[in-house]
Amino acid sequence: MSELGRAALFVCLALALYATVAGVLAARERRRRLAVSAQNALIASFGAALVASVVLVVALLRHDFSFTYVADHTSSRLPWYYCLSAFWGGQEGSLLLWLLVLSAFSAVAVFLQRRAQDLIAWVVPILGVTGTFFAFLLVAVTSPFATQAAPVEGLGLNPSLQNPYMVAHPVALYLGYVGLAIPFAFAMGALLSGRTDERWIIVTRRWTLIAWAFLGIGQLLGSHWAYEEVGWGGYFAWDPVENAALMPWLAATAFLHSVMVQEKKGMLKVWNMLLVALAFSLSLFGTFLTRSGVLNSIHSFTEGSLGPWFLGFICFVVVGSLALIRWRLPLLRSKTKLESLVSREASFLYNNLLLVALCLTILWGVVFPMLSEAVRGEAVTVGAPYYNFFLRSFGLPLLILMGIGPLIAWRRASLRSLGRTFLIPAAVALAAAVGLLAAGAGSSTPGKIAYSFSAFVLGSIVLEFVRGTRARRALTSSSWLRALGQLVSRNRRRYGGYVVHAAIVLLAVGIAGSNAYDSSAEGKLRPGQSLSSGGYSVTYRSLTREPKGNHVELRAQVDVYRGKSYLGRMEPGKNEYLAEQQISNEMAIRTDFLRAEDLNLILDQPNTDGSIFLKMLVKPLVNLIWLAGIIFVLGSVITLWPDAREQRRLVERYQAARTFSRA
Amino acid sequence: MTTLALVIGAFVAVSAVVYVAGPFLREPAVEGRADRFDELEPESRRALELAEQRDRALAALKELEFDHRTGKLSDTDYREQIGPLRQQAADALRGLERAEQ
Q1: What domain range is B50 assigned to?
Q2: How far is A13 from chain B (nearest CA, A)?
Q3: Looking at the partner chain, which of B12, B49, B70 has a beta carbon nearest the beta carbon of A467?
Q4: CA distances in angstroms from A87 to A138, A140, A141, A235, A490, listed in the order given
Q5: What pLDDT sits at residue A661?
Q6: What is the pLDDT of residue A645?
Q7: Which of A466, A390, A391, A394 is nearest to A428 (CA)?
Q8: What is the spatial distance between Cα A63 and Cα A74, in angstroms, rounded to a whole number?
């Protein structure tokens, strides 16, 4: 069946190429049938990519080792769900996933906007050229359908990828990365067609939200995977792969805020175009980082087949989009100006500057080792202190801005109004700071600041909901609950956004708590010996070894106590994978929901004499990070929920505009 | 298996060609203006711009009202800002009326 996979990819390449060339011709000469034909080609490319993907999935599930990709990433003992996730476990498969998601999103975006012919005419070739690039890579550079004489057994899947979170995490991330191609295509389509009115913004905002939500969910799933699987008790290490997903998320966050200023005030049009281009370029850069081999060494990048193509395409996207923005500057000039430095739009501007500054400092931290290796022959890596410094420098002001922004009115606010609206959140923040000091949690200054700021933001969010509901009640005389429902449903973006802000606050509290107030202990233990930290004591009992499926489980039996009360048994250990001939750490986690903390046990070293080297970590408030993920999803869904009133208003507006030309 | 692959492959390729050629197969003899897609004329673009200005001003008025009601704006601030916003909305509406005439 590999021939079918190859043929489907070739058809996909031909269709994407046709969509590009025919799309440009149709848009330039306003040829209706050719434009529809180009759109159809883009939609059909999804069908071809789907056929290719099905071929690979079938080969993976059937353990068809005549496919080199299947033999390199699975084994006959691998459970079926990890065989499925091996689809995106290697380079060729993950690029095929990129193409599949891109063609699916392109088909949906083109189908939904097919009535706006003059705008969509230029969107098609932009999406077509991106699809052509990925299909070309899969056809000519790195094919997932390369075959060989089938070996008896495959090499298996990297043990750290044999985790439920790794089934979902890459897919969510790819939905995010690829989703950013749609806003980029609409932005560039708007520039090429000269349709720089609000339409592209409205389409783009929704797609950016989808991509941004998936990037956020993907990162949280990845953090949870790292927390569970990597076995060091952390969840984020400023690894370039993690940074690769964080950077486009930050750029998209900046865009989602600044686009509101464009909608409300008609300002920041050039800035928004730049942000869309930056977010998509960073999503390509993220894929380049993880797939080109550049992270291992700058030399492996130049020796590898994929890197130069990727770098070339990123340069093409960056230079092309900057040239287009430059060309259309006269259309993008704003007619309104910032009325006051103390206004909602000004707070969005400050938020944007901080987000972009954080994004660019992370980018510099990622590219610096590559540049230093290219120039001096030696990679100088940038460590966590560099990133943590900038996270504190830009992150804490961003946190407080989340609380300040919603309290300030649009256009301008007087000091008198500010004093009145800030009073309650400021009092909440002060009470939190005093409470922390009284509870003896004042040892960490960044932790104390983060908690006080978080209290301020939460106070302002609650206040916004209360004041809004009260105002709604005064208008409609309905119950509190009904008024709250009406408030949210009439302005989903604003109140969904506040829910997301609450999630970010919980995330900040979780990160600050688990880093600033954590405790740990480690030591060599013989059966019966104990270790204590953070109010817990653990006693090592025995070591067991048991074959399970495609691996052997090694587990230490450890009894856990808090004071004198017995809390139960935990089993930290290691898995020895047979086909892969690798060992993975299997950390044991005990979650205390009432105290919102985790006790983690890591079996660092099992010894032949029955003793072990055990590490225990107590992570206060770490669970708030995962709770933040659930609230983030809730807020994103509220924000994304279609607004029929807005749709009706837009339809009326465009129909009226078209009537003008006919009149 | 190879035959099945060939059949599926051929089906995918032929379906794609038919689908892509669809607009020309359905309307083989269309030429000139009938084969042009709609594009906004300059007067429509101007009307669209005015409609956006009108909607923006009306939304801003609603927002101002809400901010005042929720206590974010004092009475003085509210009175200061409502005039220029009403003016903007009225200008946009007048512009649209003029364009219609």
Answers
A1: 42-101
A2: 12
A3: B70
A4: 14, 19, 18, 25, 42
A5: 55
A6: 79
A7: A466
A8: 7
Does A563 lie in the same domain as A421? no
Contact B16 A264 (CB under 8 A): no
Residue with tokens 């890197």: A307
Locate all alpha helices (DSSP H) within B1-101, ordered by sequence.
2-26, 42-69, 75-100
Whether B99 has its CB under 8 Å from any CB of chain A: the answer is yes
- A490 in reach of chain B (CB within 8 A): no
| A544: three-class secondary structure by DSSP | strand
Q: What is the pLDDT of residue B50?
A: 83
Span A392-407, pLDDT tens digits? 899 999 999 999 988 8
Q: Are residues A439 and A548 part of one domain?
A: no
Buried b (16+ CB within 10 A) or exposed e, A111-124: eebeebbbbbbbbb
Report which of A122, A109, A130 is spatially closest to residue A13, judged by C-alpha positions.
A130
Contact assignment for A7 to B13 by CB distance below 8 Å = yes
Q: Which of A576, A455, A574, A548 is nearest to A509 (CA)?
A: A455
Cβ contact A170:A287 at 8 Å: no
The count of structural domains within chain B is 2
Strands A530-533 and A536-548: antiparallel
Measured between CB atoms, does B32 come within 8 Å of chain A?
no
Residue A107: domain span? 1-162
Distance CA A633, CA A606 (A): 40
The SS3 assignment for A67 reads strand
